[in-house]
Amino acid sequence: MIDRVVEVARPARLSVRDAQLVVACEGTPEVATPLAELAVLLLAHPQVTLSQAVLSRIAEQGGSVVTIDGKYLPAAMLLPVVAHWRQTASFAGQLELGLPLRKRLWQRLVRAKIRAQGELLRELHGSDDGLLPMAARVRSGDPDNLEAQAARRYWMLLFAQGEGRNKFRRGTDMALDGLDQNQHLDYGYTVLRAAVARAICASGLHPTLGLKHSNREDAFCLAADLMEPFRPLVDRRVYRWIQEHDPAQRLDARAKGWLIETVTARYLSDGEDRSLFDILARAASSLARAMLSGQAQEFAPPSLLVESPAPQRERWP
């Protein structure tokens, strides 16, 4: 199966014909994608028209739909509610998850995230700057807040360019501070978040019931948790992009396509070439097993993944 991410970023009418999603834009030929191959549909223009039947058919095939706002952040997300053989037990296990197990699972996520950040710094700049030893010191629940300490060091160094090494700040207000690579990161994280939420639902878990993230206005707290070790995959692509392009320019079709390839690319995992969707599904399944068994060691999030060649993507500018 091919997992495709399709973005519609211009006025278009969407329909389903012969088990395919058909995108019709004025002045251009129709483009069709088999629903069985569609993983994520990104709606990035206010003049995209589609029916409830289209949304239903996408969900029936296991795909997700994300609407994106003007800041490249998710405004809404539609996920498939597909019966899983252990879904009821999984939901109950999430609701009854004890604090000690929750804290141990969060410890494993934070360790994996900091390791991935350190490995990316070493890959790009030749040194992990102490993040790998820091990852090993993360305790249950991360009471020392090493995640935040690692983040401060990581963002200071990731986009370091000579004397400007301290100028980048993650999460700044683009309206006040102007455009920079934050817009690229936000867009990439939006795509990744959709893929992670899809994997969580497929594993029988509920994406709202998080381990650490608990924003009452966030319907996908568990997706925010599970995506943490995978964020450096987006960071790596953003770094490579801004080496040749001005980050202050607004995202165009080429930049978005490059970032979408973060989730459509293939990676080496456990000695095998796998799609990121497969790797995310395995991570979500191991998390579900850990929750049901009460054994945190069942959950094994990966460190930084090595990308294989020949990513696959689809987009319409």
From TrEMBL:
Molecular function in Gene Ontology: DNA binding; DNA endonuclease activity; hydrolase activity; metal ion binding
Record bears the keyword Cell division: no
Gene Ontology biological process terms, A to Z: defense response to virus; maintenance of CRISPR repeat elements
Sorted UniProt keywords: Antiviral defense, DNA-binding, Endonuclease, Hydrolase, Magnesium, Manganese, Metal-binding, Nuclease
Pfam families the UniProt entry points to: Cas_Cas1 (PF01867)
Alphabetical list of HAMAP family matching this protein: Cas1
UniProt name for this protein: CRISPR-associated protein Cas1
